[in-house]
Every structure is written in C-alpha cells, then in structure tokens.
From TrEMBL:
<keyword id="KW-0547">Nucleotide-binding</keyword>
<dbReference type="GO" id="GO:0005536">
    <property type="term" value="F:D-glucose binding"/>
</dbReference>
<dbReference type="GO" id="GO:0001678">
    <property type="term" value="P:intracellular glucose homeostasis"/>
</dbReference>
<dbReference type="InterPro" id="IPR043129">
    <property type="entry name" value="ATPase_NBD"/>
</dbReference>
<keyword id="KW-0808">Transferase</keyword>
<dbReference type="GO" id="GO:0006013">
    <property type="term" value="P:mannose metabolic process"/>
</dbReference>
<dbReference type="GO" id="GO:0006096">
    <property type="term" value="P:glycolytic process"/>
</dbReference>
<dbReference type="InterPro" id="IPR022672">
    <property type="entry name" value="Hexokinase_N"/>
</dbReference>
<dbReference type="Pfam" id="PF03727">
    <property type="entry name" value="Hexokinase_2"/>
</dbReference>
<keyword id="KW-0418">Kinase</keyword>
<feature type="domain" description="Hexokinase C-terminal">
    <location>
        <begin position="245"/>
        <end position="481"/>
    </location>
</feature>
<dbReference type="GO" id="GO:0004340">
    <property type="term" value="F:glucokinase activity"/>
</dbReference>
<dbReference type="InterPro" id="IPR001312">
    <property type="entry name" value="Hexokinase"/>
</dbReference>
<dbReference type="GO" id="GO:0008865">
    <property type="term" value="F:fructokinase activity"/>
</dbReference>
<dbReference type="Pfam" id="PF00349">
    <property type="entry name" value="Hexokinase_1"/>
</dbReference>
<feature type="domain" description="Hexokinase N-terminal">
    <location>
        <begin position="43"/>
        <end position="239"/>
    </location>
</feature>
<dbReference type="GO" id="GO:0005829">
    <property type="term" value="C:cytosol"/>
</dbReference>
Amino acid sequence: MPASRRGSGSVTLPTGQTLAFHTRSSDADDLPHATKKRMADHLRKYESLFTLTPQRMRMIVEAFKDSLETGLAKAGQVVPMIPTYVFGWPSGEETGNFLAVDLGGTNLRVCLVTLEGEGKFEITQSKYRLTEEQKQEEGQVLFDFCAECLKTFVDSQIESGVIRKDCLLPLGFTFSYPCLQDRIDHGELIRWTKGFGASNTEGHDVVAMFRKSLEKNKVPAEIVALTCDTTGTLIASHYVNPRTRIACIFGTGCNAAYMERAGDIPKISHLGIDGNAEMAINCEWGAFDSFEHENLPRTKYDQIIDETSNKPGEQAFEKLISGRYLGEILRLIICELIDEGVLFLGQNTYKLEIPYSFDTAFLSLMESDPTDELLMIIGIFTHFFAVETTLAERQFFRALAKLVGKRAARLSACGIAAIVSKMGYLDEGCAVGADGSLYNKYPGFAERIHEGLQDIFGEKGKNIVTYHAEDGSGIGAAIIAGSSQSTHLSCREVLSSPL
Ligand code: BGC
C-alpha cells in the first residue's frame, strides 16, 4: 500500500463513468517499479517510432493525393471516392421539418430537424448507445432496432403535438459506413468498418433493408436520402459557414468529404452529368493504404490491431488515427513493457491485458491532467486496472499518450493536405468543418492538425483552418433530405409547421 495519501476526489468521464483517484506521496514504496533510466530509454525508442517528420508527411500527402485521383478515375479502388449524388452547396434558405436517423459507430440517434432558412435550425433528438452485440447481430435485426427507436421517438413527438398524426415524414438516413450509391436514396454497403460485423448486410442496399424495418414497425417515415456523417457535415457546415470546402470526421472512425466538379470524376462520365455541376464526394479515406501498406508508418502495435481486428488489412489509415484504436495502441505498448518486465512487476495486470480495455478517453484525460502529481492518471490506473503507479511512470504514460495522439493528428493533417493540394485550395485558403469525439474532446488535436499543415505547406499552411463543424448527421442529413425532397414527396405538406 502507498505510504501516505494526500487527497482524493472523482471526475466524470466522457463515457459517463465516474473515476475516483487518490494521491500517493512518494515514488518509493514496497513495489518494484520501473527505473527512470529504463523508461527514458524506452521513450526514446517510441519517439522514433511514432514521430512523423515534415518530409515523411509530404511523402504521405503525395501518395494520398494519387489514391484520391485513382479513386475518382476508376470504380472499386482502395480509396473508393464515392459520388454521393448530393449536388452543389445548400443555399442556406432550405426550410421545413425532417426526420434524421444517424447510425454511427457508437450511438444511434434519431432527430427531428426544423430548417428555418438563413442558416438557422432547431433540433430535437434522442440517443441510444449501441452494444457490441448489436454491432454483430443479423443486419435486419439491427435495422429493426433503428426502426423501433424511431417509432418511439415519432410517437412521443405526436403525443406532444409536435408532429401531426397520419403524416408520412421525410427522412434523411445517415449511415456512416462506405456505401456505393447510384442515386441519393440507395446505397450498397461495401464493407462494415469501426468493428461492426452485422451479417447479411455487406453487398446489400441498406436503404431497402431499413425501409423493410420501417414498414414492419409501421413508422410513418419515407427515406428520401442516404448520406454518411462526413457528407452531412460538409453540407451542414457550409450552410452556416460558406467558406467551408472540406469536412472531416475524427471520431470512432475517420473520413472526409468535399465538393468535386462532375467533369473531374472520370468514373461517372458515362452518366452524362454536366461537367461543371458539383457533386459531394465521400472519400472514405480511412481505407487509404489498406492491403498493400506501402505508405503509412505502421508500428508493430498497429499491425497487431490490424491482424486481430474483424477486418484485417482494411481501413489502414483509420486504424492509426481514430478513437476506436488509439487507446488500444497505448494498451499494447504498456502490455509489451509488462511482458518485458519493465512495468508493474509483482502486480496483477490482468485487467490491462483485456483487449480494448484502455479507452481513448483515458488518453485525453492523461494529456489534460493539470495536477503536478498527475492525479487523474493515478485514478485511471488504480480504478480501472487495479495497479499502482509512481509519478515517473505516470509521466512516462503521459508522454506515450502524447506520441500516439500527436501521430494521429499529424496523419489527419496529411489527409486534409492531400485534398487541399488536389483541389488547389492552398493560396486562397479554406475552412475545414471537423467533428467527432477526437476532434472535439482530445486536448490539442486541432492545434496539432494546424501545426502539421504548416509542417507540410510552410507559412501557407495557415490558410487552411479547421473548426468545429455543425452536426452533419442530424442537420446535414435534413438539408440533404430537403434538397432531394421534390423528387420524392412534398415534405412541408405532410408535416405540421412550424414546430
Ligand atoms: C466510415 C465512414 C465514416 C467514418 C466516420 C468510417 O469508419 O467508413 O463512412 O464517415 O468512419 O464516422
């Protein structure tokens, strides 16, 4: 046991869990701990593995740019560059009431959105946490769950008089997994990402599947548009900030979308779309460098994550960056040091040995711990993993978290830079709407992206500015549904208005 305690307290984590901590006064206690010298040696090794030099970043940007071009030129490429059939920017004058369903990597969200014009809106929503079991069950069962949640939400809105009974409501469906689209209300799932594995869904039209569940549950909603969170973010962000040219999600998964000239999408030239028309492209950049692994600096920890995932070889870029994996990268490093006898000798480390037990939210807390004694880090290790740490060990863990978090942000900068340089946005500059738990909650993530952009482009990198985006999966889906409604049904006629 520690020699003395000087304080205790608790904090609430973004996951909703409560983290208790207590302080210990000295590094020396009766457990054998890692020596500072040994940790310093290891830290140097990890620094060289996880640090990205500006030169290396520029090489990644070049390869990334090539992949984007190849994806636009031919169907079925590693980075699929999906034409979304979302044409042009919103005018900001879209109005009306819409339902939005957002099936994300962590939560299911159902929303009622009122677009009020002039870039203004109102949103009412309910959120449901998805269990790991739900992510693996039969696809139709997953869509049934989405329909049931939507039914409960719509019923409650009808009961409170917000929605009229017996109306068919237009619905924007945000499905944030790569889908091949040949029109706005259709999408064939190419592959699951972010650990999902629901059977009988890959290769199927997810709109048709969800429609079936809506009918089964008698939900008064008509899917008029399928979109992914990134495309929705692009549209929603531009609705409020017209300088936006690119949108990114850095959350459980990662991705980007931007607006492309139809004439510069050779793989759809046969459709005869006016070359000057603009269409949003869902890059699905999380797939960059998949299978061949030629361009990204993968460490052995990244390789373990990949090999033990349900989709080995896939989403190579995403696995180095997104919130689903960063905690696991750090956990694997710690486990290696336990195996080598460097850390936690004489302590029971079984909790640390459970895959994915180290939440990425812990890395955020470790990096943001404001106390000299690193009290939050004590709390994480004692409360969740039942191991005692010294101050030197906690400093070491914080330095490791920083390496992992910084690499993720700098790689994200490479992706943004690839689109900027492909589209020639550097001189004029542009705004990049960004969303997702990592971008919003990880301390310094945005600053590190900006630093990375300057390392790649020099001073001009300052022209590219990321900012916290509007809610793409809710507002964006509603705007997209609104733009496509005329071809489906007249939404405002079937909805009570105003809310
Ligand atoms: C998905 C994308 C999504 C991104 C962010 C990725 O795993 O493939 O469609 O936009 O996660 O949620």
